Amino acid sequence: MAKISPLMIAPPLIFAAFAVLAGIGMFRDDPDALPSAREGQPAPPVALVEFPGKPLFDDATLRDGEVKLVNYWASWCAPCRAEHPNLEALSEEGVPVYGINYKDNLTNAEAFLTELGDPYQAIGRDEQGRMALDWGLYGVPETYVVDGEGTIVLRFAGPITQRVIESTIRPALEKAAEN
Fold first, then answer.
1. In terms of Cα–Cα distance, which of 148, 133, 146, 139 is closest to 70?
2. Is the pLDDT of residue 175 over 80?
3. What is the rounded distance in angstroms from the CA atom of residue 62 to the CA atom of residue 65?
4. Which of 72, 160, 166, 176 could lock onto 153 through a cystine, CB 3.0 to 4.6 A?
């Protein structure tokens, strides 16, 4: 009787594992969506440095009974520049938008807001990116829908476009308002 070597069994097992993972990936709701362990969880503590001349927000702000967006952005981020008019439009509609300036040069961040406008009801700086780690940030821009109790209802990685507003942000805002 021939002896079966582990080296003969390993390649088919490895292939089968990859096939299963690929199959799972193909049937996800949104293959581009990045997972978020924070959705449905309380927002992590807010630990920000003041953005000169702008109101600062804190933990109590996230739990003030009002649905809001929390947006991580930076002046060096091209997609942040692209999404900025959409954040301004949401702010003008009355959606409270809170900004977190991520690992940015203050002079450049101030110039960014001077040039493009300031949609933020309050803003702070995460100079070292420590708060971003607690929030599970992948990169900027990234936007969170937070309900009035301070629970994260949605995490959206990438620039907010009109399509994203209609298909993802508005439904999340409605869901947050129901909580």
1. 146
2. yes
3. 8
4. 176
